């Protein structure tokens, strides 16, 4: 009991600190548009050990401004989404840390458990623990000094030189301190103490044999979480991100609270980890449900995927779709024309394991899909995939094999699902008027690829 | 009067008029633009990325060159909008009378226009809100009153058109062009001076 309450008070002080920070960071991000460029923003978990070590310095030094100057830079930095696959436990775990504080039992209920379980055994050593174990000392202090100072530093801190310097720090950092770190100090730690974790229910919490570790664990989690939220907020990852006019309006009401970043803008692998579809492995349940819904209800709708639908409701829904909301949930869509005018109802409601998303029309659902795909920090179809899709190759299946090798599994799975979906849309061209060409124009913009690549995708699916 | 003075095409730069047709997707921006430019209705359902047309017209006895920008409705390109919004002298914001959502979307456009112009009022910019697809009476979702009320709320004039039948299309474009020309105090004195010198 006392633990809980102390945690709560800790959190409130946290949030006040954060809000002051946030106002500063908003200012500085105005002063320099480069600001949010820095990759790692919110994600303590990322960038650890190997990944970080593997991060070429140049990439780091160079890329923030150009490529990622804008929005979801946080993730931009990640060379491969697959790494997230391994890491995701952090992600899955992270958002819920609030729940750790509060209702542990909730944790027990998550369908992700199996997945976690699987991951754990794979890692044996439980990556989080190493990281959690490792980083409070380093990271706990770290953000305030180096990261923390970042947004505040009167805007100048964001300039190129600093980034350059950054790259060095980072580049050098992981190998020396991080790379070696977990093994030495914490190598044995996870198995012994946290081994029970993998077995779930309740994530080990409150189990007597783990109870002794409560303090360590909790402290680590708390610090990690604090850092995560702080960074996320400082880098504008939160729902009230100033850079994305898209998200702003819908979320303006919720700025300043303890919200986590919304699902839109997270790397695909992370979204899949948080919200996996049971029926369609590798595809986020949110997107799978949306596409299923459109296929079942809206294929004959004129201008499907072209017409935007109700923007305000879409923004509201996107703003509410954070990892916590979606963690392990089933997603169900509902079209209710009344929600076009009635602003009182919540677009997104979680009831047990089901998230119900109510939108005014099917176009709003389609538009939600487009926005989530568009916000992915890594392109769904990367350059290699574009080359594969635009090359002359009519042997069906062959392109898929090439694609599977060229892009991360999650991207491949989603792409395959999407191709099937778009082919179904085009098949109903007579009623919905969306020809392959029209679809290619729309999705070329959504996925940031040439039209020919979308056409190629459609050809593969037809 | 000055209007009678034929300054010829080579002197039209002061009279150059840039008009942008903007609005959500699939409301008929391109159809309106093509109808105005060439007088026929294209039933092409492909989204526009960007098109521009140059048209020489005689309006109220004045010869004008009008550049008409047919913009992308998709908000994927909303960052491009800034350019049009800064460049344009006048705007036609189109929504579809058969889709209420498209009317609501106009708010974003007008807001962005104000933001670009760094002004709360739309003084000096000619803006017309156009409800298109007036021929589809049976699918109509927005009444004339609602459209007019929205336009008033945004501080713009209002018109209903049909690109398909051609109703009101020329009137809509000419209203905006006339507005732009009349609204142009800055460019008048130089051209006057020039003429006097001649």
Automatic annotation (TrEMBL), chain A:
Residues 266-462 form the Rho-GAP domain. Residues 28-37 have a biased composition (Low complexity). One of its GO terms (cellular component) is cytoplasm. It comes from the Eukaryota. The keyword Lipid metabolism does not apply. GO terms for biological process: signal transduction. This is Rho-GAP domain-containing protein. It comes from Thecamonas trahens ATCC 50062. Transmembrane segments: none annotated.
From TrEMBL, chain B:
It comes from the Eukaryota. GO terms for molecular function: GTP binding; GTPase activity. InterPro entries: P-loop_NTPase, Small_GTP-bd, Small_GTPase, Small_GTPase_Ras-type. One of its GO terms (biological process) is signal transduction. GO terms for cellular component: membrane. Keywords: GTP-binding, Nucleotide-binding. PROSITE patterns: RAB, RAS. Pfam families: Ras (PF00071). PANTHER family: RAS, DI-RAS, AND RHEB FAMILY MEMBERS OF SMALL GTPASE SUPERFAMILY. This is Uncharacterized protein. It comes from Thecamonas trahens ATCC 50062.
